[in-house]
Amino acid sequence: MAHNHGPGKEHSHAPANFGRAFAVGIALNTIYVLVEAVIGLRIGSLGLVADAGHNASDVLSLIIAWVGAYLTQRSASERYTYGFKRSPIVASLFNALLLFGAMGIVLWEAIGRLQNPEPLAGATIIWVTLIGLVVNFGTALLFLRGSNDLNIRGAYLHMLADGLVTLGVLVAGILIIFTKAYWLDPFISLLIVGVVLWGTWGLFRDALRLSLDAVPGDIDVTAVRNYLTSLPRVASVHDLHIWPMSTTETALSAHLVMAEMPQSTSKLIQQASEGLHDKFEIVHSTLQIEDVALTHNCEEA
User: Fold this and answer.
1) Which pLDDT score, from 0 to 100, does residue 159 have?
2) Which candidate, 143, 146, 149, places its Cα nearest to that of 250?
3) What's the mean pLDDT in 109-113?
4) 153-204 pLDDT, tens per residue?
5) Alpha helices in the chain (DSSP H)
6) Total domains in the fold of the chain
7) Which of 185, 211, 237 is the last residue of a domain?
């Protein structure tokens, strides 16, 4: 049996350092959440309050993602032999549950306000949401270059979605000024809830799958198996397992059954590990070589 980390000198799979981006994004969004919530409560805009609640959960999400990114850089220990690479996966699962709860509260309030709409200051909503557009889209740009890391990509997409949601509140404010249709405020709140729940379901589903060691969605198990069986002298493959070690690193273990045992297995293992890295971005591979004559004992076990 042999373990290989792949040709790490050529490609780095370690998460990039986005400490400054997280700090700036958290500071800007915290200030905006306070401003939006205070003004929304004073003028009675459920749309602003809903957006503020969503943005507040995003601040918490950024904090947790930052902590997760920091923990992935810590070394392994005797207790945590893989280190803390799975921290962002746990953080994503927690954030999804948090968002479900927050949006449930907003949904309840929006339905009540839709039945009894109240007058709102549309001009105030416009000014507040214009600031929000700058903050949300500006924060999204801070994470644009980290799309190869699922944790960073989630922060980017979340802030981009926030910008689009804030744009919806802005449109509601403009329409209220010209139409006096105050029901648009809770209606936009319902749309916000729908958008957030849609995105949150995807986040929850992916985080749950990864936390249960499901194969990452961008890896074709059949293609991996076909590649391994195409290696010289490999008759078959069994006990093939592929799982995420983090949001950027994938691990694999497998038993390679040899039709003819080579004199040295190191070259075969090196070839297999490099191919798994280059073709599938699998950076941690553990391969066990078996003689075809003895395979039935391993398979029965």
Assistant:
1) 80
2) 149
3) 77
4) 777 777 877 777 777 777 877 887 788 787 877 787 788 778 778 877 877 8
5) 19-43, 46-72, 87-115, 122-142, 150-179, 184-211, 221-229, 266-280, 295-300
6) 2
7) 211
